[in-house]
Design brief:
heterodimer, A: about 450 residues, alpha+beta, Rieske Iron-sulfur Protein, 9-stranded antiparallel beta sheet, 4-stranded antiparallel beta sheet, 14 helices, about 30% helix, globular, B: about 170 residues, Nuclear Transport Factor 2, Chain: A, 6-stranded mixed beta sheet, binds FE2/S2 (inorganic) cluster, binds fe (ii) ion
């Protein structure tokens, strides 16, 4: 692997077994400014994190038929996620092996083959190189030509309940093992569909912010910020309740109720770097006796009364390094530069759920998460503001030690934190630190 | 029918200029009154899809419009603290008569937006340009034209968007 320049920073003395950018000692957990704003750290992240762990690249419902593709990213690496004629999903590096041009310029589509616009090399939709124009012309390729097989195929591709993950490292741990406790979270979210499946049909919300990509990772599982960053939204809830289409998404009509509904349940810092906030529903009856009672009843019959409380309960996750799930959406955050990030929010449908249910969820999320919505723009505003605050160098460290003394470490390495603690963020940074550290000696 | 024959391009331009001035001057309570009670303010991401199948950037009925205006005028939130200044420029106005006293007014609009406050800070003091084709479906009544639907087709509607927490 590449050398990383983090260890040779003039300002931060590396600690043994540490990138030097994450400080963990008794009662303390701190992250150095440079972890967010240093170009060298960013470049190292692309290799040491994005090349080594499973990265979400799409959902099977986006590419149901042979030849269907979508373009995606693994860190800075453009890829094409494409279903081959035999049904397999391949993840191909979107770069012509001749001289580097990007071979697919569309967001999504269907193609039998990809033709490079530069010199016309042609690749089958499984990546195989099938034509080199004018190969035998004078000045062309001789019989000694070491002809490439085709587009670089990302070595590992696997799926979990329709979520497609890819990994550049052929020796990565199995996807199941990587997901760990996050598997249960995803299962519960998706089990709200009678068939356990979700569908990406809606167009996503896409926004960019001038801040580091890890601010979004920290934020999606941050219960602490809600009543402050979203205080105006709480005013809206108090005034309008569910009348403008909240659809039960944000329970509570006052700051104290909202805080109560958030500061309860489990906070998991998962060893693999994930963060999870979950809690069973306080009154499952309200679902069974409500507008969609029959639908909920069928789900309860299927999963059992105990599990039903979790399926309709709270479940929010940050899956290391750049995938999130909250409400009825999958979210990704794509690093572009140390101070530039693109967030894509995919509101999904539950297959087999009543149309009005799925529509209600779409419009509730529109109200909060659109670029003109009453919630998400405030979050990204804070991320850009964080980044600006980091530009000076008078203060070195960011504090992520809220609740550190009440964390309970589990035998498997997961941490259970108290509600409102920063246990999720700590496990994220521990994993980040491990990956960024290993590379220094590798 | 007679009403829409009389609704000239000049009438349409006056209407759009007045609306734009209300938005730019934050006279938003007045702006609310431009709509019919079942009117829609719609900024799609993909106008070819049913709004039952996709989210939009904005899809406001009367109550959601009222909520949006309340949010802007009566609450404080990070994305509008400090606030945006906007300026609408309107061009290429054309009037397309429809039946039942309705007309569609199509215009090309450019909105310049800048956040106030400490202009040295990230996100503040930067001029943003929003470019849209707008379609105002108007019903012509005795007390003037009312908006049945305001559809805003942003040029970059299905691409990364910045802070749009103001009225377009
Ligand atoms: S770069 Fe693709 S054919 Fe030359
Ligand atoms: Fe938030």
């Amino acid at each position: 692997m590449t050398e990383t320049r983090t260890a040779s920073s003039p300002q931060v003395a590396p600690m043994a077994g540490s990138s030097g950018l994450v400080l963990e000692e008794a009662h303390k957990f701190r992250v150095h400014t440079r972890a967010y704003n240093d170009r060298a750290v960013f470049d190292a992240e692309m290799r040491n994190i994005f090349d080594r762990v499973w990265i979400f690249v799409g959902h099977t419902s986006e590419i149901p038929n042979p030849g269907d593709y979508k373009t995606s990213y693994i860190g800075m690496q453009p890829v094409i996620v494409v279903r081959a004629d035999n049904g397999d999903v391949n993840v191909l590096v979107n770069r012509c092996v001749h001289r580097g041009a990007v071979v697919c310029r569309e967001l999504r589509g269907n193609a039998q083959q990809f033709e490079c616009p530069y010199h016309g090399w042609v690749y089958q939709n499984d990546g195989k190189l099938v034509a080199i124009p004018h190969a035998k012309e004078a000045g062309g390729y001789s019989e000694h030509f070491d002809k490439p097989a085709g587009l670089y195929k990302v070595p590992k591709v696997d799926m979990f309940r329709g979520l497609i993950f890819a990994c550049m490292d052929p020796n990565v741990v199995p996807l199941d093992e990587f997901l760990g406790r996050a598997k249960l979270l995803l299962e519960r979210r998706f089990n709200l569909s009678p068939s356990g499946e979700i569908v990406f049909r809606s167009r996503p919300f896409v926004s960019r912010y001038k801040g580091n990509w890890k601010f979004q990772a920290e934020n999606i599982v941050d219960d602490y910020h809600f009543v402050f960053t979203h205080t105006a939204f709480i005013d809206l809830q108090a005034k309008y309740g569910d009348a403008t289409g909240n659809f039960g998404l944000h329970p509570g009509g006052s700051a104290s109720e909202m805080r109560k509904s958030r500061y309860r349940g489990n906070v998991w810092g998962v060893d693999q770097g994930h963060g999870i906030l979950d809690a069973p529903a306080l009154s499952p009856e309200s679902f069974l006796n409500g507008r969609f009672g029959d639908y909920y009843k069928a789900i309860q019959d299927k999963v059992g009364a105990e599990e039903f409380k979790w399926v309709v309960g709270r479940g929010i996750g940050c899956i290391f390094p750049n995938l999130g799930i909250i409400h009825q959406q999958i979210r990704t955050w794509r690093p572009i530069a140390p101070d530039l990030t693109e967030v894509t929010i995919y509101p999904f449908e539950l297959k087999g759920a009543p149309g009005e249910f799925n529509q209600g969820m779409l419009h509730a999320q529109e109200r909060f998460y659109a670029p003109s919505g009453h919630g998400a723009p405030d979050d990204v505003e804070m991320f850009a503001s964080n980044q600006h605050g980091l530009e000076g160098h008078a203060v070195d460290w960011l504090l992520l030690e809220r609740g550190v003394d009440t964390d309970e470490k589990q035998p498997n390495g997961d941490y259970r934190g108290q509600p409102s603690s920063e246990a999720c963020q700590r496990s994220y940074w521990r994993q980040w630190n491990r990956l960024m550290t290993k590379s220094a000696g590798a | 029918m007679a009403g829409d024959m009389n609704f000239t391009r000049e009438n349409a331009e006056c209407f759009l200029i007045e609306e734009a001035e209300m938005l730019d001057e934050l006279r938003l309570e007045e702006w609310l009154k431009l709509f019919t009670s079942d009117g829609l303010y719609w900024i799609p991401i993909d106008e070819t899809m049913s709004t039952n199948e996709t989210v939009s950037i904005v899809r406001d009925d009367a109550l959601r419009r009222e909520e949006r205006v309340f949010h802007l005028l009566k609450t404080r939130f990070p994305a509008q603290s400090p606030r945006s200044r906007t300026l609408h420029s309107i061009s290429s106005v054309r009037v397309r008569p429809k039946v039942d006293g309705q007309v569609v007014v199509v215009s090309n609009q450019t909105i310049h937006e800048v956040r106030t406050g400490d202009y040295r800070q990230s996100g503040l003091g930067e001029m943003h340009t929003i470019v849209a084709r707008m379609e105002h479906l108007l019903v012509l009544s005795s007390d003037g034209p009312k908006i049945v639907e305001k559809k805003v087709l942003l040029l970059d509607r299905d691409m990364p968007l910045g802070n749009l927490t103001f009225l377009i």
